[in-house]
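Quick question: what would this complex look like in 3D?
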Amino acid sequence: MPPPPPAWVQALKPAGPQGSELLEQERAQSNVNVDKLSELLHTKEALETQDRLVRILSSEPIFDKSENHTSGRTERIQRALARGKRLQQLREQLHWSEQEYIMANDLIGEPTPYGLHASMFLVTLREQSTPEQKKLFLEPAEKYQIIGCYAQTELGHGSNVRGLETRATWNPDDKTFTIHSPTLTASKWWIGSLGRNANHAVVMAQLYVGGKNYGPHPFVVQIRDLQTHQPLENIYVGDIGPKFGYNTMDNGFLLFNHVKIPHVNMLARFSRIDKDTNKYMRPASPSLVYGTMTWVRSNIVLDAGGVLARGVTIATRYCAVRRQFQDRDATGNVGENQVLNYKMVQIRLLPLLASMYALHFTGRGMMRLYEENQSRMKASAASDQDTRGPGPEQLRAGADLLADLHATSCGLKALASTTAGEGLEVCRRACGGHGYSSFSGIGPWYADYLPTLTWEGDNYMLTQQVARYLLKSARAVLEGKGTANDTSQILQAYLARREKGASFDILEKDSDIVAAFAWRTAHLTFEALKLRDVEKRSWNSLLVDFWRLSTAHSQYLVVKNFYEAVTSEQMSAALDAETRTLMYKLFRLYALHTMEREGAEFFASSAVTTRQLRLTQNNAVMKLLDEIRPHAVRLVDAWKIPDWKLDSSLGRYDGEVYPDLFRRASMNPVNDLVFDPYPWNDAVLKNGPKSKL
Amino acid sequence: MPPPPPAWVQALKPAGPQGSELLEQERAQSNVNVDKLSELLHTKEALETQDRLVRILSSEPIFDKSENHTSGRTERIQRALARGKRLQQLREQLHWSEQEYIMANDLIGEPTPYGLHASMFLVTLREQSTPEQKKLFLEPAEKYQIIGCYAQTELGHGSNVRGLETRATWNPDDKTFTIHSPTLTASKWWIGSLGRNANHAVVMAQLYVGGKNYGPHPFVVQIRDLQTHQPLENIYVGDIGPKFGYNTMDNGFLLFNHVKIPHVNMLARFSRIDKDTNKYMRPASPSLVYGTMTWVRSNIVLDAGGVLARGVTIATRYCAVRRQFQDRDATGNVGENQVLNYKMVQIRLLPLLASMYALHFTGRGMMRLYEENQSRMKASAASDQDTRGPGPEQLRAGADLLADLHATSCGLKALASTTAGEGLEVCRRACGGHGYSSFSGIGPWYADYLPTLTWEGDNYMLTQQVARYLLKSARAVLEGKGTANDTSQILQAYLARREKGASFDILEKDSDIVAAFAWRTAHLTFEALKLRDVEKRSWNSLLVDFWRLSTAHSQYLVVKNFYEAVTSEQMSAALDAETRTLMYKLFRLYALHTMEREGAEFFASSAVTTRQLRLTQNNAVMKLLDEIRPHAVRLVDAWKIPDWKLDSSLGRYDGEVYPDLFRRASMNPVNDLVFDPYPWNDAVLKNGPKSKL
């Protein structure tokens, strides 16, 4: 580490006012009840757990973050493995719950090579194993005696799961499966925890029985020796190399050369091969698997609020500390203006501040719906084993809710992760030049988050699922077969009023804002339906319309969920009137700013008039920015992201931005190098060896 | 390096059709004359130089790119210095011109620590030195006997140059200046080549003479010893640490503790201290300095086309090789569809393909204007020394053109770099999961490019300069003082027709498309003028309107420049009719797609009707996508970016995407590590030492 700065440097202070003073002023000018609001967002228990875990983790040297951005990949991934090990040890010693373990992982701020073992490998074994298989695979996996991963994506196929090339062929003679990669593109690819860490994999492979393909199924395959950790014979496995982010994870590749596995290694809860007849037995309940995907996507929606909150917290605090230029209309020497006072900064940051709340409440709403549905399904499965069984109406309502939930989760996953990912980059740029420093804390986080826009369904691909569902719902409504679910309702409401036309008072009535979003969705749905069913346009030619439709629908869902949250009894009970008013304003800002950005669609669907749009843009949104501005710092404080997690000079709670940037810069290891700057000297360092020029 | 894969792996091929076959088909289905088009873009000479330089550079081991993405920062920056040295040696040995040296730097694909010496340090010395100072500083600098940088930005001040805190105080007694950093925020920051490499700096500091501040001026300060390369006394200097990209550059910080420099170290071509009277002598011609900024920004516009072309080349080729899903309306087994055939991919990539051409021709147009203006100014300066001097009309026309050029370059710099930066990320995502791999070649390039959106004027800040100029022009036009320049013309044309209203045939007449963009600019200008001058709205409350206005104006300029290029005699002479037709289509796609995205503004300004907008969206743009699609690969081929420069598995000219991804993955150094995967073993590697958990 470089020597500390000389005394005359250590005596220097930033030009005043100090960051700490500015943030104190910010906090003094708002009455937002930070503690109550944070408890509403996270619960008091979770916040206490967070404090406790930060104390534990920040006192362990292995979790020190100061070298995260300077090391090469081989060092980083070894340190990540060491961190993963330490987390496991702590988990056992301190008897952490699953929730605590997840939170601890989240706090250390980067993935570890155990990531996919702890999530998809265990989840798949839990959900798709028979009791015998649980004993064989799940129990040792839970004890980390075997380490696994979930190998679905291939070099040549990501989105199109049916196109996977890896094969599992049933051998009736010796009652085994042969796992084989017939081509190079069949190589498993991107598989987290596979590259260096796993010794087992759940492999999705096309099942062939008697020459017939039954589609992709899951198989447990051991890939490395449990002692030497060397790949087993006829298996070629490794890490796929450096990435834009996520470099502490060993995403891997995997090829099989006719590898035999026993019958018991096909995960058989839902489908299996009968050993005696050599016949394929059908899936029992694919809707449960469907449910897992919905759960994964709902979690992405819920997380998106918190992901964005990191960027918004950093940018908001820094823009309150950073001062640049005098206000152009100011007279006399009033000093430089806080950057957060500029409307061009507010219009970028404050709608994102509103979005992080909007996404959080939407994610909560999604999880609630998911859980309702799960308990309904369990009840139905239980009554299934009754003599009576569920009535046909119950079954229909269940399937209806599931389909709605599936489409909703697809659309919202796309919208939420795009909003969070792109929002982080907006936050980074709002920090000006210093946003580009790794010490801003935004760039590394953005780079690690970006895959979320592609995995669990590419955000563009997913929009087709939403459109397909909306078109199907619209056809049902037109045939008089509408249901009680929300989608059906908004389509019916639109049809009933279409002739008369919409007239929403979006500037005065909040419920009319929600109605205007619903109207636009319904309008776009019937427009798309006409193009597809009447004009017989090709599916491909409509993909752009479908993407717009899905975005519109998902924006409606966010606006609706946010509105329900701000008008809920829970919020009334939890917050004082002033804080609640601010929540209303954030709702309006999210909705009206979205409406303004998508103005052409709102206007074309007659959901709003051009006059309303102009007033929205010139008055309503600008006024909301003015009203929310004084509370911005407290509104990010309420998210209660610990400094240790943010790992950001710009976003420090105490506002001591410049001393922290300076401290980190002076300590960075490049400052240990003494260059030889002359081109004719081949050595790059003073007294260093000659380089191999 | 890991051992090569076993024989059974080496025998595997990707599932057919092979990437090479698909790209051959692509190239066979289009008649675009790639060679003629590339010569029009770059000139034949430049393409030959490029070929020659690639041969030279790719044969030197120091320029091997394979470890660029895996090494830590201290290794990377040392290698970058070694590369910089080798480039200098080659430049001397092979007698490269300035152009050849710049191209070679560009081909190696990452900045070196000599970057700011070779650009801003030398440029500033050339432009702002007296003959005596040239001998003293410029001559040794050109021979790399002294290495320098340009130190303007500070920790606390970037955009607001007048707010710089570093001071240079004139000492009349001993005829020296004292350079001093009174605060921590006065520390120079972000200065390229300063952190480890420079031994001199041009320091921008507030000049104080007799207690009076004369504003920021440039001073040459030696900062490190020429032999030991250690910082001189009372100077604290170092590297600012890791960044989102640009990590091979030693951006630095610099603090002074009352450092004395002689009189001759103030660069004195335009302003100086008279040694005898101790008086400040006024700047001679600030407009020349103004000119340098305009030149730098014009270059950013010109480069933006090529920056974007890298991403579009990679994504277009890969989307032609990648196949996923069958077309939903296809009957029977037709195999999977090339991703490039999907409209949702086309709508993302093809407008960017059009943009890269649009920006290139716009940059060319800017440089032409700049050069015209420079020669006019030189002529005027020459006649200045005549007895006659320039006439008042000449002077006014010159100042008028300069102001227009300045505003134009500000707005276009913002639009062009935002388009290129954000476009690269669109390209990366269009590549699906593999876009996230460093081997895609997009991510690292994007990360290195991003500072361009902030430096040389933050893209949001710059829009105020454009708006200020447009408002001033509009006031002049209203007062009957319009000039002959284009801005004045479009404002006058709008006023003349405003009562009658616009009626542009944007779907049939290309010149009307340009006119509609001009109309929108003029409309927004007069709207903004009304808000500012009549309604007396505050400057701050109008910043968002100004940003929209600047964007609109800059889009008009791009559309106009592109239109002038496609209708130019130069293009008629260079290209066959078919290729030229494609250029027209790219122009239309750029313009109509922009119009569609900004639909609300075009409609609100009455530049187009809602019917026209709908037809643009549903028919015109979709039809253009269909028509351009078959030529997409040839249109990126014409940019002639060598594979060695692209450094991308996905973007290879030969389409051998998957074997190359596989080869790079299997060779990556993480595959040399053998993990110990068990959490209770403290060692992270098999037989490795215990980690310090």
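Answer marked as accepted. Chain A touches chain B through 148 residues (CB under 8 Å).
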